[in-house]
Structure prediction request, 494 residues.
Amino acid sequence: MAKKLGIAVVVVVVAFGVFRLTGMRFAVDGSGMWPRFWSRTPNYDELDADRAQQRRLPPLPAGDHTPDEAGGAESAPSVATVPESSRRPSDSASAVLVPPAAGDGRARGYWPDFRGINRDGRYDEGDIRTDWPADGLPRLWKQPIGVGYASFVVANRRAFTIEQRRAQEVVAAYDVQTGREIWTHGWDANFVESMGGDGPRATPTYDDGRIYALGAEGELRCLDARTGALVWRHNILSENDAANLSWGMAASPLVVDDKIVVLPGGRRGKSVVAYHKGTGSLAWSGLDDPQAYTSPMLVTLGGVRQLLIVSAKRIMGLAPDDGRLLWEYPWETFNGISVAQPLLLGHDRIFISAAYGHGAAAFEVVPDGDRFTARTLWQNTRMKNKFSSSVLRDGFIYGLDEAILACIDAATGELKWKGGRYGYGQIMLVGDFVLVLSEEGEVALVRATPEHYDEVARFAAIDGKTWNYPVIADGRLLVRNIKEMAAFDIRPQR
Prediction:
C-alpha cells in the first residue's frame, strides 16, 4: 500500500510539474463536472504577433459603401498606418485603422444586440445557404482572439466584442470581411473564475453610432463606434452598493429609448439601473433583487411595452420610463442561477427555463387593473436550458436540454423529440433551420420540425471550448470562443 501511495504521489508531482511548465490544464465542460478540454494559459504573445502582422498589411481599400438608415451611402476615407506602440489597450482608444462609413447599418448587416435585434435568437435578414459542402462553409478568415464568453454585435460592416488581453478587458472593433482589427479600447480588469473560465461575459450593445460594453467586474463604458473613444463610464457594482456574482457580470446592457438599462443587483433600490445613454447621468433605479445572468429585454405584453427582467428569485415586468413594477412571477432556481433568456410565446405568454434539475415553465400575463397577474400554464423538466436559450418556430420550442437538442410543444410542454449531442453550446433560428454552435466549436444545421430530429450538415469551425453565441450578419456567420474567431460565407449560392 505504501509503495502504491508513493507512486501516486510521484505521478501527481510530475503531472503538476508538467502542467506548470507547459501551461496546460484541464477545463471542465458545461456540466461543470467532467474535464473535457485541454486548456493552455492564454497565448497573448500569439495574439499580439497576429495583430502586429495585420498592421504591416497594406491598408484596406477605400470606397467601401455601407447604406445608412435613410438609404444613402458614404465612401470610407483612406486608411492610416498606426504604429505598433499605439495598439496596446489603454484607458483611451487606440488610433483608427479603418474608418467606417456613415450610418448605423440598419438596412443590412445589422446585429446590434445579444442574440439579435429582439434578443430572441432569430436571424430574419434573408435566406442562408443550406447545401453545405462536406468540409464546411467557405471560410473568410480565422485568427486568435482574447479570452472571454461575449458574442459579437455588428453594424456598418464592423464586428464589436469584448475580450480579455493580459490584465485588461478590451473592447475591439473588427472589419467583418477581413477580420482586420480596427480599434481597441481597454481598462485594467482581470476577472478570474476557475470553474467556468476567465474574462468578460456580457456581449456589448450597439446603438446609434455608440457601443455600450460591460466588463465582468462591472465596468460600463460608452464608446464611439467609429473611433473607440470614451464617451462616459460607470462601475455599476461599486456605484450601486452591489457585490459581483460568482460568474461575473453577464447581462448585456439594453438600450430603451434614451436610456441604457443594466442589472447591478444592488440593495436599497439599486437592483435595476437606467442611465441616460447620451450623458451617462442616472435616469432611474429600483428594486432590491439580487440579480442573475440573464440579459434584460424590451417586450410588449398585454399591449403594454415593458422591460422583462429575470432576477435570482423572480421574473418581472417593469415600466421603461421609471422602473415601476408591473407584475412578477416566482422563479427560484438552484443558487439563483438563471442564465437562459425568456422566450415570448405570444402577446401575453412567456417561456422560461433553467438547469440544475429545475426545468421549464410557460405562464401568461393577464391585465389586472393598472397592473398584471401572472398565471402558470404548464411546468416540467423536458427542457433544461443551462446557459443557452431556446428559440420558437410555428408553435414549437427548440433548445438544448442540458447538452442535447430537443423540441417541445409550446402550448403543452410535451416533448416531441430529443437527439443530437452538441454539449453546452448555443443555438439560433434561421428560417426553417436551427443553427447550432457546439461546445467543441462545430457548426451544425438541423431542420426546425417537430416531426423528428434531422441534422443536415455539420463541420468543425473553431477549436476549443465554445460557449459564445454565433452571429449572422449580411450573409456572414461569425463565431468565436476563448481563443479563436472566424467568419464564414453563409450566403445562398447563385
In short: Residues 8-23, 63-107 have pLDDT under 50 and may be disordered. The chain has two helices and 35 strands.
